[in-house]
Prior knowledge:
By secondary structure, this protein is an alpha+beta fold. It is 48% helix and 20% strand. It starts with a helix and ends in a 6-residue tail after the last helix.
Amino acid sequence: MSGSAMFFARSRERGARQGKRLMQPLFSTVGLHPRNNFQRWQEILLERRVPLKQTRLDPGSFEGRLDVAGIGPLLMTRITQGPMRSEITPAIIRRFDKGDTLVVVFKLAGVSTTSQDDRSCPQRTGDLFVLDHRPAVLTSGAGSQSMFLELPRARLERLLGPARLYTALTVGGDLASTILTTTFFHELIRIRDQLGPEAVARMTGIGVGLIVASIAERMAQEVPRPVQGSVVVQRAKAYVEVHLGDPALDPPQLAAAVGVSLRRLQELFHERGRHVSDWIWERRLAAAAERLTDLACAHLPIGLLAYGCGFASQAHFARRFKERHSLSPREYRHAAHQPSPA
């Protein structure tokens, strides 16, 4: 392990220990009669709208614990339990109707296996993965602990493509982006009470961006296979999201990154009525427009914002932006931040 990776791993472990103390205890089976403590556990999960039907894998005594931490609009739910088979069933899907969200799961301790969308992957401490509110099976061993974060589906799919491309896909805890993401959330839990509303909004936005970057990096690592072109295109789009700020990103680099020829990549995009280079610039312009309207980015100079979206110069950014939106970046930001008429 490199020095930087070891530093982040130690920071993540320290943050996890501190987060364990700082999350709010919600429910524990400690003190309940063994005869009905599992039944009560299931009732609590349903009351908290945790869409899992569970079956114990250990006939011995059961222990479970539920903790939560609210960070602005985000709610982190940590579940600690014994060996378990958890299912997302059609009945539960109909009952909770959460189709507009996806769940990001941080594996904090123990081992588990998740199956969804014809994909089955193991998870270990430090990994993360995404679950959709569709049929799935999660099998966890002794001492399992996971943290669940529900996010708007549109926010992930707009950048990463359809959820089926990455549901149950293990994003390894050895990836630098995953280490950074988990460390960030552990630290955010620890210091959340020290942040004002604007800082909380800014930090949660950064956290979601880190999750997207982690998933995109993992998707971009998939070994090319003779599969439908749509998968290659989505992997290419995921790579663009991770490397959007790289001014050197161009179609040849993108084709090499996803393991196909430039000609093949261009053909796949043309089949969908797009040009590769146009897609890269559209994503840069869209990211810049989003940041210009985001109050959490209001303090950023426009030149710095442009560089962060992959533009080599502020003049180039201003010209392309005005061509697209008929307003300069400064005018666009000003209009977005004007108070709505009463």
